[in-house]
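Researcher: I'd like a structural prediction for the single chain below. Treat it as a standalone chain; there are no partners to consider.
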Amino acid sequence: MRAFMPLLVSLALFTLVFALSRFAPWGLGLAFLGALLAYLGVERWQGGLLRKGPSRAALERLAMKEAWRRGGLLRPRDLAPFLPEARARELLEGLAERGLCRRDGEGFRF
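Model: Treating it as a single chain, here is the predicted structure.
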């Protein structure tokens, strides 16, 4: 699935350049070279984004949405599909320190 976006970008660029060259033989080589460079560039950019992972703000929004789905009470283990429990606890404690939720027994109430 990771190679899907670079493939689409390179295919679109290949088609555009080849069509703009009016399907000339030299246009085929130019389109192929452009598509290859586009594939490599987008794949590198996308790989960098995926290695960094989601931002803290995105994780906080995820926790708030999950709390909304669960009726306002969220435990660190409820975020297990998305985060390790230690990191989920750290995230929820950070939200509590900022006043966005409060500690309620073993969970956090939003």
